[in-house]
Amino acid sequence: MTDLSAFPITRKWPAQNPKVLQLYSFPTPNGVKASIMLEETGLEYEAHKVTLADADVKSPEFLSLNPNNKIPAIIDPNGPDGEPIGLFESGAILLYLAEKTGKLIGQTASDKHHITQWLMFQMGGVGPMLGQLGFFYKFAGAEIEDPRPRERYINEAKRLLGVIDGQLEGRDWIAGDYSIADIAIAPWLNGLNFYGATEIVELDSRKNVLAYLDRFMARPAVQRGMNIPARD
């Protein structure tokens, strides 16, 4: 029987089936990247709900797997060296699962690099900037009287949407075929609805982005993954 006792996180979130991949997550734009990827690839896994409360993400057990106290994280009992491996950071998890399965990372080395550049675009730009937009437009930052932070992230969100809209001209997916780049980017675009920010960033003017989101959200694996692990 696979032994995951070397991972302290399993004390707080015990594995029911330690032979399968363990997902520790919550359905945020970053969290659903991992669950969507797992649903798309068909890998067998077990999902554990890790809320964003300090009692979960700042618990010693969770910090033992991700010292940066952010979801998602995984343990794969069938790691690449014949031993279990634990990983955090959603982009690293997408790359790992793509390489493990040989899926959604292109057919050639050039494909992989083009897909990876758009994955990094999301990790370094779309995620951080739209996340800050949400903070300053919907959450606590909205109470700050100085308009400059809010204006900065609204304008940066508009710029990034323009980049994505341009890349999608004549394409169904961001880097050719459907890939981990789409699984990284689209959940953050969808998050603009949650922030109530679609009008302020003029999303309706980005016809390629709107059609792209519709295609993405129509995928059965996406629909399943968007609710894993369930909030309730």
Automatic annotation (TrEMBL):
Q: Which family does it belong to?
A: Belongs to the GST superfamily.
User: Know the name of this protein?
Assistant: Disulfide-bond oxidoreductase YfcG
The record's SUPFAM superfamilies line, in alphabetical order, gives: GST C-terminal domain-like, Thioredoxin-like
Recorded hits in InterPro entries, A to Z, give: Glutathione-S-Trfase_C-like, Glutathione-S-Trfase_C_sf, Glutathione_S-Trfase, Glutathione_S-Trfase_N, GST_C, Thioredoxin-like_sf
What EC designation does it have? 1.8.4.-
Has keyword Phosphoprotein? no
Indicate yes or no for the key word Oxidoreductase: yes
Stretches assigned to the GST N-terminal domain: 18-105
GST C-terminal domain location is 108-232
What are the GO MF terms of this UniProt record?
oxidoreductase activity
Species name for this entry?
Falsiruegeria litorea R37
* Matching PANTHER family: DISULFIDE-BOND OXIDOREDUCTASE YFCG, GLUTATHIONE S-TRANSFERASE-RELATED
What are the entry keywords?
Answer: Oxidoreductase
- Enumerate the Gene3D superfamilies for this protein: 1.20.1050.10, Glutaredoxin
Tree of life domain: Bacteria
